[in-house]
Here is the input.
Amino acid sequence: MAVTAKFVPDHIEVLPNTPTTLTLRLYNDDVDTHEVTLSVSGDLGEHVRVDSTTATVETNQIVDVAVAVLAPSSIVAGTYTITAEVGLGVVGSWQAPVSTVAQPVVVAAATVELAAYIDHTVELAPRRSRGSKRGRHIVRVANTGNVVVMLDIEAQPTDGALTVELEPPSLTVAPGSVGESLARVTPSDTYWSGPSNDHGFTLLATSTEGRCDELVGVYQQRPRVPNWLGPAAAGAFAALLLGAIAWFALLGPWVSDTADDAATDAIERDRVALQDRIDELEISAAEAEELPLGQPTDIRLEVAPTGGNAEQDTATVDTGTILSITDIVFENPTGAVGVVSLRRGDDVILQSELANFRDFDRHFVAPFQFGDDVEIVLDVQCRTPGAGESICPVGALLVGFVDDVD
Here is the structure.
């Protein structure tokens, strides 16, 4: 029959927050010594602790393992079951490790009666409220026991000057929860001015078990017009009056003169800036009329570097001539990603990201000029070829005029 297990006793009563012990008794009537492993589960499994998770049970031996149950007050009172699972393993005569052969699991169960624990706290927040027309308070009930708490709340004003309304007048609070009731305090009469008056009231919170908590609060009734309003209004009026006098007598004329001067200065600055711009445009137009254009010509440069590489294509201006480029068309038909540069020898005159365009053109009023024996360089750095491509094919068409050097 091997090892048997049972709880002793198998039925216990437990008080919340109070540790209670029982015994898990193991008996081995097998010819082999067993090394057992112990684990606890069930309704209260996480609140049950065993003295040891392993035990060695020899032939015809009884081994008792202490088990403690500690149920917090947040668990609802009632009947629960705890279960102990005992895994069996065979130990050889030389005390070898537990056998790897699958062994049966023995189960023991015990019933736990968790006794009722009734407790709660009641508070009034705030203790003192203020206002001219009404006050607000909260009755807060926290259930610290393990059974439902039901309370009736009754208001008892200490004088006839107040009306207290409760919403709701009764509370039902589950274990571990908090319930609230709103208390509205309203004075029977209001007044416009005068000193503040304190009105006391009492709330009685009575539970179905007969416990009664007395909550004392105060409502401070204030006048509808605050006492500080008159002096504040007089001070504000005096400040406005002084401000108006200062404005019309001093600040107004000064602000007006300052604004007029600022406007005159701004107009003069705009007029000067506009004239400077007109002069620049006239100079540019005059220079453009004097450009040595000559005979129309065009040059095409093409490169196709692979991904991660760069490639150049060059053209050299003929000796004794000057090349004026008025139009440039960049071509990126596959949508490659990288950088394209157009250089005059070692000087970069245009640079752009390939990802910013597929094909685009540039036109210039004053053309780029290339002297004789100067190289025109198209440089492309290919970072990522376009979809389905392994290269970045990029071209540049340069259109302009060629003329002899004077």
Remarks:
- DSSP finds one helix and 26 strands in the chain.
- Helices lie at 229-289.
